[in-house]
C-alpha cells in the first residue's frame, strides 16, 4: 500500500498563517499542491505570503482574521467553504505569548490569552465541523508549556493544556466520522514569538536542550504536514513533541 503525503486539491485552512510556524506550514502545503486559505490578524503580511505562493490563480486565498472574534472566525470558515464546499485540513496556529507573572496578570490579559489561544480554536473547529468529511484532518498547535507549565506564562500554559484536551476530546467525537484530530507540541522555535525570550534566556534554554539549539519553523511544519496527511491515517488523539529533547516524558 502506497500512502501519499501530498495535498493536491485539498482545502487547507491555516490561521496565524503569517507567523513563523504558520508561514512554514503554508509554504510546505503549497509545495504539495494544497488549495490554501491563509488567515492572520496581520492582513498585510498574509496578503504578501499569498502573493509569494502564487495567489488566487494558484489556489491561495488570504484573509484578515481575528481569532478573538467569533464573527471573524465564522467569516473565515464561510470563505474556506466557498472554495469547494468542504474543508480537508485545519491548522489553527494563531496565538499570543505575553509574559506576565501571576500577580501582574490582569483579568483582561488572562481573558485575551485564553480567548485567542483556546476559544479561537474552539470557534474555528466548531464552525468548520459541517464542512469536514471522511479523511479530513485537524492539527492543533499546542506547546511544551501545555504539558509542563511555564513560569510567568500561566495563562499561555493553561490555554495550551486546554488545546491538548480539546484535541483529544474531538478525536473521540469526530473519529466515528473518520476525521482525525492531533496536536503538535513545539518547544522553543525560532519565530517572532520567541525573539525576546531568545535574547534574554536563549543561552540557558539551549543548554537545557539535548540537541543544543532552537528549532526551525520548518521542523514543526514537517510534523504538521505528516499528521495532516494520509500517511498518518491511523493516528488520532495524539500529540507529537518537537523540542530537541527539551521535554522528555519519563
Ligand atoms: N515559537 C515557539 O517557540 C512556539 C512554541 C510552542 C508553541 N507555539 C505556538 O505555535 C503557534 C504559532 O506561533 P509562532 O511561533 O509561529 O508565532 P508568531 O508570533 O510568529 O505567529 C503567530 C501569528 O498569529 C497571529 N495572531 C496573533 N493574534 C492573532 C489574532 N487575534 N487573530 C489572528 N491571528 C493572530 C500573528 O499575527 C502571527 O502572525 C502559536 O499558537 C504558538 O503558541 C510556538
Automatic annotation (TrEMBL):
Keywords: Oxidoreductase
InterPro entries on file: KR_dom (IPR057326), NAD(P)-bd_dom_sf (IPR036291), Sc_DH/Rdtase_CS (IPR020904), SDR_fam (IPR002347)
Keyword Oxidoreductase: yes
Ketoreductase domain segment(s): 10-187
GO-annotated molecular function: oxidoreductase activity, acting on the CH-OH group of donors, NAD or NADP as acceptor
Superkingdom, natural source: Bacteria
Pfam families with a match to the protein in the record: adh_short_C2
Family the UniProt entry places it in: Belongs to the short-chain dehydrogenases/reductases (SDR) family.
Protein name: SDR family oxidoreductase
Protein source organism: Glycomyces artemisiae
Amino acid at each position: 500500500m502506497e500512502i501519499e503525503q501530498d495535498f493536491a486539491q485539498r482545502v487547507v485552512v491555516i490561521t496565524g498563517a503569517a507567523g513563523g510556524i504558520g508561514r512554514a506550514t503554508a509554504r510546505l502545503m503549497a509545495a504539495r499542491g494544497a488549495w490554501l486559505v491563509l488567515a492572520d490578524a496581520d492582513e498585510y503580511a498574509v496578503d504578501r505570503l499569498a502573493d509569494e505562493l502564487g495567489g488566487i490563480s494558484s489556489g491561495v486565498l488570504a484573509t484578515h482574521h481575528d481569532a478573538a472574534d467569533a464573527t471573524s472566525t465564522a467569516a473565515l470558515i464561510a470563505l474556506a467553504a466557498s472554495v469547494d464546499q468542504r474543508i480537508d485540513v485545519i491548522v489553527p496556529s494563531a496565538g499570543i505569548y505575553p509574559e506576565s507573572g501571576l500577580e501582574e496578570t490582569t483579568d483582561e490579559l488572562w481573558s485575551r490569552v485564553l480567548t485567542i489561544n483556546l476559544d479561537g480554536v474552539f470557534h474555528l473547529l466548531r464552525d468548520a465541523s459541517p464542512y469536514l468529511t471522511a479523511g479530513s484532518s485537524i492539527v492543533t498547535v499546542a506547546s511544551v508549556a501545555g504539558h509542563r507549565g511555564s513560569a510567568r506564562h500561566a495563562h499561555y500554559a493553561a490555554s495550551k493544556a486546554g488545546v491538548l484536551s480539546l484535541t483529544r476530546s474531538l478525536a473521540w467525537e469526530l473519529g466515528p466520522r473518520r476525521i482525525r484530530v492531533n496536536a503538535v507540541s513545539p518547544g522553543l522555535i525560532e519565530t517572532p514569538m520567541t525573539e525576546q525570550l531568545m535574547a534574554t534566556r536563549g543561552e540557558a534554554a539551549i543548554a537545557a536542550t539535548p540537541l543544543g539549539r532552537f528549532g526551525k519553523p520548518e521542523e514543526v511544519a514537517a510534523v504538521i504536514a505528516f499528521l495532516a496527511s494520509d500517511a498518518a491515517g491511523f493516528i488520532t488523539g495524539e500529540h507529537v513533541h518537537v523540542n530537541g529533547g527539551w521535554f522528555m516524558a519519563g
